[in-house]
Amino acid sequence: MDQNRLAQLALHFIPGIGNFTVKQLISYSGSAENVFNLPKAKLLKIPGIGPATAKSILEHRPFAKAEEELVKAEKENTRLLLYSDKDFPQRLKHINNAPSLLYYKGNADLNAEKIVAIVGTRNATQYGRDFTAEFIAGLKSHNTLIVSGLAYGIDIQAHKCSIKSGLPTVGVMASGIDIIYPALHRETAQQMTGYGGILSEHSFGSKPDAPKFPARNRIIAGMADAIVVVEAAKKGGALITAEIANSYSKDVFAVPGDLKSSFSEGCNNLIKTNKAHLLTSVSDLEYIMNWAPLEEGKKKPEPQIDISSLDDDEALVFSELKKHDTAVAIDNLSWQTQLPVSRLASVLLNLEFKGFVNSLPGKSYKLANSK
């Protein structure tokens, strides 16, 4: 790991610094290495950095801790995905509270073309387990990546059925990646590392506790194109995931159930209150998401755009925006391109004048020819 990546990792071990602050520091400093070289006066000029945070940065140089984490990662056969890495889940970058570091053990493409999250009650009924199996089998023609939370009930059923159907599946954990919870699912988790993977934002040795589960749910919702709730009681983690997904403007689907079943009450309420599309089969998802099976779908040729007139920074920003179907916030774009916000603003303005880029509310940008 080069010094800049080591510095990025080290930022995560400074007390009182969270994901947003890590991204903010790097965006305004130009690199993680620069953060550790800034004097207090310049740190205080970065939005959101107060005296306490600046003091913490100046007093802590956790490079030894970062190196220890690297040794553990190698021992555990785990990849450390930094926010700026191309393999980092790009869909997550569209949410404001995205993690800035992920621990990943597996071989699935976290930026697969189609990703579906499947969640539900821990007390799954036979109806829910059967639907999950049938639904996942129907997704095989799409080569879909299935994401869930490795919990009891619908979650573990989704993982097991994905493996059986030959689809990659990723479990998002509320603990360190070296602590499988619940322990009963250790064998399945091991299978998943060869047929998908397990993922966590928590450092090695982190034990699962109550606050970590809702935080885990935001990653499940943020990674997916669509979130499917198979069974859910009136309250529970699956409904929290659905609520988060709605706040991210993701498509949420719910499987209707027996009106007398407590484990269908949550799904029925999501449908009744227009917080989820009704889902009875894969065809419902295909219709809403406009997904044609692979053998039927044909990719439209991308229009050729002449970028020969762009300088190096403009071409870099254009190339980064081309990777995204939706608008990208300037702070995220700064992180991805490693251009300081001040320089990036000038580059974006030039691209807008040249007709390559459109600016949108909230200091976000997209290519002029994108939908």
UniProtKB/TrEMBL annotation:
Pfam families: DNA_processg_A, HHH_5, WHD_DprA. Residues 41-60 form the Helix-hairpin-helix DNA-binding motif class domain. SMART domains: HhH1. It comes from the Bacteria. One of its GO terms (molecular function) is DNA binding. InterPro entries: DprA, DprA_WH, DrpA_SLOG, Hlx-hairpin-Hlx_DNA-bd_motif, RuvA_2-like, WH-like_DNA-bd_sf. GO terms for biological process: DNA repair; DNA-mediated transformation. Belongs to the DprA/Smf family. This is DNA-protecting protein DprA. The lineage of its organism: Bacteria, Pseudomonadati, Bacteroidota, Cytophagia, Cytophagales.
